[in-house]
Amino acid sequence: MSHPSKVKGNKFERDCCKKAELFEIPAKRAWASDGRSLGLDSEVDIVVGDKEYSDEMHVQCKIRKRLPEYIFPKNDVIDSHVIREDRGETYIVLRYDDYLSEMRRYRQLKKKLELYEGSTKPPQRS
Fold it and tell me: Residue 102: which of 84, 79, 76, 83 has the closest Cα?
């Protein structure tokens, strides 16, 4: 039987994929949490989005008993946190639901734009 933390991690990955699919965004979990099964780096756990919309994100899922308090907004007026280690890269931390909502909005706008652009193109000559 698998180690309890591995079971918890696998469940979290599946839950992340299911949540994306609720937002009508395709998501795929790498077999054995190893991105190499999808032809990607071994660190990749799930892929959210797809190449059709140019929104494919390679994600590593981490679940912990406790996260640092500073990551969580103190109230509902903050949508995300931008964090950086001294002389390091800058990252944004936002709620997964908010990210998926914006991703769905992007996909819907892109689809409308493609339909709009397709209707204004002159017919091609043979």
Answer: 79
Tokens 């990252």, residue located: 91
Q: Which pTM was predicted? A: 0.82
In this structure, the strands spanning 57-59 and 80-84 are unpaired
Burial of 104 (0-12, 13-18, 19+ CB in 10 A): middle
Distance CA 33, CA 28 (A): 11
Please report the DSSP string for 75-115 in residue order: STT--EEEEE-TTS-EEEEE-HHHHHHHHHHHHHHHHHHHH
Q: Is-contact 41 57, C-beta < 8 A?
A: no
Average of per-residue pLDDT across 29-38: 95
